[in-house]
Every structure is written in C-alpha cells, then in structure tokens.
C-alpha cells in the first residue's frame, strides 16, 4: 500500500513544552516510532507542520527574513530530524528528505486575507507592540494572540516527479514540510518565492492525490473529529462519506483544513483518509481508530465517549 502521512505540529512542538531542540527532538522520536511501524510494511511518504518553528524564526530574525526562506529553513531542519530518527529505526531502508517547492496562484484571495496562524501565543500588550513595530497582523488564539499570514491553496508540487521516482525505488520520502515552499511562476516560467505559509494538510492531500496513494493519514493530538467540539467533545465521528463533510462546523485554523483535505482525497473511490492521533497511526491505517473519510461509507457513524 502507498501511504502518505502528515504529522501535525504536535509531532515536533507540543504546546505544553518549550520550543527548544531537546524537546522537539524528543517529540520527533515519538513520531518516528509510529511511522517506522508503517514504513516496515508499506511505501511511505511523510509531510509535517512548521507553524511554531516558522513563527519563532521570523521573530528571531526581527522580521528581516522572507517567509519562503523561513519555510525552507524549517523544512530542512525538521526533515533532518525525522530523516535521522526514521533511519535509526529502519536499518537497510533508504530515507530521504527533499526540499519541496509548491506553486501557488499570485492572485489567490488568501494574499489579501491572512488567516494562517504561526509562531507562539503572545499576550495582548506584546501582540500590539509587534503589530506596531513589524506590521504583523495578529488575531486571538489560545487565550492570547498569534501572527497570521497568507495561506494560498497549493496548485502544483514542483518536485513531484522526483518524489515519485524515489518512492518507486522503495525510499521513505520526507517532503512538502510545512506545506512546502510557496512559489509563483512569472511569464517566462521562472519561479519566485512569496510571503506565505501553505496549509500542510492541503499540500499533503495534493501530494497524495498526484502520487496515487491508497491512504492519507492526517495525524494530530486528538482521537479524531468530534461533532460537539470543543464542548463536551464526546461524539467522535468514526466514519463519514465525503459528501457529508461540508455539513460539519469546524474551526478553520485547526480541524477544518484536515477535514477538507480528507474530503478531497476520498472523493476518488478505492482510497480513504483517516484523521486521528499519532499514537493510533497503525490503527488508523487499518480503519480501526480515528475518523475515516471514504466514499464507501454509506452514512455518518458516531461513537459516544
């Protein structure tokens, strides 16, 4: 089976832990344990989030480094950690990390309406200072304020052919980290980076679809999609057909993109997407846990918890 798995931000930066190398490496080790078990039996492509890291690097650079460069930096850094930890657990198996450019539309309306949260949560006074000093747009999030940046839809994975060659050779590929490096194409066909961060889940869906994957795993820190999130969060959606996903009321910055990505991927018969916790990765692949989105599901199935 060809599997594409997207690691949520919790895989490399848990909200309750400091954003330092030691804690991030420890989180990656936990993620690698779950992924290695899948890679030992299937072809595997891994993507990952970068929201906390790209925001922190932007803060450390004093706002002088463009977002496309910071996206590339985080893709290399986090990809290196995942690559090494997976390689340690898969002796004899080739693992490769690939910087990935993702084409976006320069006229995408997202450029005029920033919505993607990145970086740490700031107190209100700090948020106002950063807004005044750096011209950042900040919005309420997690009891404070976070910077928001444009998040255009991914249209093309420029390194797709290279990724496909590697997968066909049995290589475990880590790519499109943080949604990939956002680029636009000019009239001559030359590529140029742009100030944006692409949603990781939507980029992963595009990658999985173009690779002809059998399964898309969207791994996060909750058991799945709940009908009654955030309170009291007891009605877990165990399975749902793609056509019913539009009726769900979901947070646009967290579960919304995951469900939209799962819906897009599962519209094609014969493949499925699953959303759930990293620890349940193998069970998600067996459709025994999480929220399964598939065209072979007749109607929404809900589990009381």
Strand and helix map with partners:
Elements: E1 2-7, H1 21-39, E2 43-48, H2 51-60, H3 67-89, E3 95-98, E4 101-103, E5 116-122, H4 124-134, E6 137-141, E7 144-149, E8 156-157, H5 160-168, E9 172-175, E10 181-185, E11 191-193, H6 200-211, E12 215-220, E13 225-226, E14 235-240, H7 255-266, E15 272-277, H8 281-285, E16 291-294, E17 301-304
Parallel strand pairs: 1-2, 1-12, 2-9, 3-9, 4-10, 12-15, 14-16
Antiparallel strand pairs: 4-8, 5-7, 6-7, 10-11, 13-14, 14-17, 15-16
Helix pairs in contact: 1-3, 2-3, 6-7
Keyphrases for this structure?
305 residues, ten-stranded mixed sheet, alpha/beta, single chain, four-stranded mixed sheet, Carbamate kinase, globular
What does this structure look like?
- This protein has 305 residues and is of the alpha/beta class.
- The protein has a single domain (2-107, 152-304), classed as Acetylglutamate kinase-like (Carbamate kinase).
- 33% of the residues lie in helices and 26% in strands.
- It has helices spanning 21-39, 51-60, 67-89, 124-134, 160-168, 200-211, 255-266, 281-285; strands at residues 2-7, 43-48, 95-98, 101-103, 116-122, 137-141, 144-149, 156-157, 172-175, 181-185, 191-193, 215-220, 225-226, 235-240, 272-277, 291-294, 301-304.
- The strands form 3 sheets. Strands 1, 2, 3, 9, 12, 13, 14, 15, 16 and 17 form a 10-stranded mixed sheet that branches.
- β13 (225-226) and β14 (235-240) form a beta hairpin.
- α6 (200-211) runs parallel beside α7.
- The longest helix is centred in the first third of the chain and has 23 residues, at 67-89.
